[in-house]
């Protein structure tokens, strides 16, 4: 069974945390509900003691970080007076002493917690805190993108309805298509990305009955389609670059290439030709 995109993103962030901070043990998990996170990813652990551990808000160091929605740290976990000690057995089995816990917060809601730890009772420096916070931000951004994609997909499915029908205005459909195309390159989960692109394809083909017959199939690279979609919304090259996370010069290059393939001499001609070719709704 393929793992979720969230698991991949969490593991990637933890590996980056371990590599860049020098902390030998890192672990973490996402919340299953408003108050509980399950430790699902570990790197550098010597025992399975922490794997699958369910952390409750307010309990232990990670639970404190979840409850307060801010990073927390201790220099000697088992003797600290600033946390509760429900998880001492698992922590001691792994030999952890100095630990930092950073919550993953998306739109003011805690969605997970990342930990970094030493096996010596030392005070963690600012670098460890900064790298841990940066790793949490990576997960936050990935989750925020996934949330937005799911929202757009749900709204777009409602707009599309049954095959062959597209309720709502064409501008609504076109805006949904533009937003989904812009998010696609940021999705690391292959299944979600394939679903997103499939919906984009349905949106792009929705106006097929209104197109003029084409003599040959025009093929544009995905980023060329993205750029033309932004142009269709009236975006300048600079605005398209910001939206797509590209440099303005790169956008200009993609647009020039797309125009050549579409046989267009102006931006408007490129948009019209892309719609006739079924590349845009």
Q: Can you tell me about this structure?
A:
The chain has 281 residues and is of the alpha+beta class. It is 50% helix and 13% strand. Helix 1 runs antiparallel to helix 4, helix 4 packs parallel to helix 6 and helix 9 crosses helix 10.
Give a brief description:
By secondary structure, the chain is α+β, with helices and mostly antiparallel strands. The chain contains 10 helices and 7 strands.
- The percent of residues in helical segments reads 40-55%
Given the C-alpha coordinates, what overall shape results? elongated
Radius of gyration: 24 Å
Count of alpha/pi helices:
10
Which whole number gives the mean pLDDT? 86
What share of residues are in beta strands?
A: 5-15%
Sequence-ordered SSE layout with sheet pairings:
Elements: H1 5-21, E1 25-30, E2 36-38, E3 41-43, E4 54-56, H2 60-68, E5 72-74, H3 88-94, E6 98-106, E7 109-118, H4 126-160, H5 170-183, H6 190-204, H7 222-232, H8 237-244, H9 248-262, H10 267-276
Antiparallel strand pairs: 1-3, 1-7, 2-4, 5-6, 6-7
For this entry, give a set of tags:
elongated; 10 helices; 281 residues; alpha+beta; 5-stranded antiparallel beta sheet; two-stranded antiparallel sheet; single chain
């Amino acid at each position: 069974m393929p793992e979720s995109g969230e698991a991949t993103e969490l593991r990637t962030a933890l590996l980056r945390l371990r590599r860049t901070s020098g902390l030998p043990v890192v672990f973490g998990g996402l919340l299953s509900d408003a108050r509980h996170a399950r430790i699902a990813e570990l790197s550098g652990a010597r025992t399975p003691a922490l794997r699958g551990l369910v952390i409750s808000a307010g309990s232990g160091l990670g639970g404190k970080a979840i409850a307060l929605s801010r990073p927390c740290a201790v220099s000697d976990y088992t003797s600290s007076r600033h946390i509760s000690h429900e998880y001492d057995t698992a922590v001691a089995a792994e030999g952890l002493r100095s630990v930092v816990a950073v919550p993953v917060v998306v739109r003011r809601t805690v969605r997970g917690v990342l930990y970094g730890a030493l096996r010596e009772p030392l005070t963690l420096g600012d670098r460890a805190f900064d790298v841990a916070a940066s790793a949490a931000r990576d997960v936050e951004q990935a989750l925020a993108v996934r949330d937005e994609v799911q929202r757009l997909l749900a709204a777009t499915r409602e707009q599309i309805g049954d095959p062959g029908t597209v309720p709502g205005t064409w501008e609504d459909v076109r805006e949904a298509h533009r937003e989904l195309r812009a998010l696609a390159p940021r999705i690391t989960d292959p299944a979600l990305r394939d679903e997103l692109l499939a919906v984009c394809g349905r949106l792009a083909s929705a106006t097929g009955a209104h197109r003029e017959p084409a003599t040959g199939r025009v093929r544009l690279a995905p980023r060329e389609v993205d750029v033309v979609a932004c142009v269709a919304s009236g975006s300048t090259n600079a605005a398209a670059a910001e939206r797509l996370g590209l440099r303005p010069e790169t956008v200009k290059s993609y647009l020039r290439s797309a125009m050549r393939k579409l046989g267009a001499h102006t931006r408007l001609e490129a948009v019209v030709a892309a719609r006739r070719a079924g590349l845009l709704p």
